[in-house]
Amino acid sequence: MPRRPSLPDLPGSAARGHEVSPLLGAAPAGGTGEFPEAPPAHTAAELSALIGLLTGTGPGDELVTVAVGHGRDDASRAAAAAFAQEWRARGGQILATVDWPETAASWLRPARRLTAQGPQAWVVTGALTGWAQMSRRLRHSTDWDPARTFAFAALHDPRLRELAGADAVRGLRGATAEGGTWEFGEGADEWFRPAPVSPPRGRPAAP
Known about the structure:
This protein is of the alpha/beta class.
């Protein structure tokens, strides 16, 4: 298996070998505006769309085992708990639930816990900068795959590619608060599908 290239340093990097993850500075290169400290509460439509992404993999590819990762803010904890409850109700298994801090020396311990049991997929949510650093560590030091990772709307932000690096977001999919879906593709490509539009009440849907 070819060795992954080292991730590029970011401003404020404290990288000193494999055990220390590159840290994000207060003003990442090219960043615009301030990053929110915590995401908003998830919506019912968002949770439904996220479940739909995981269950719409096609015959023979049904996902059962999932590891859940989240930031330590209240909204992220609640979103992770809501997903776990819904997933178990559908017969799925949660192999691990792992949280991470917004600031850390390396994020290596939570990264290893999130990948240790070899889940079929990961479901994640949290503040943008915390996940950016966590995903850098995951990509650098584990067999985590962003293409098998599904995110809440909090991580639907084009700045994530800049912060984490293209290799850490390529294939990452998720839901929007309105019930749509999105996916980070190659380069700067992104695919977005809006939420389905319900027909007006009292009027039959078009054939």
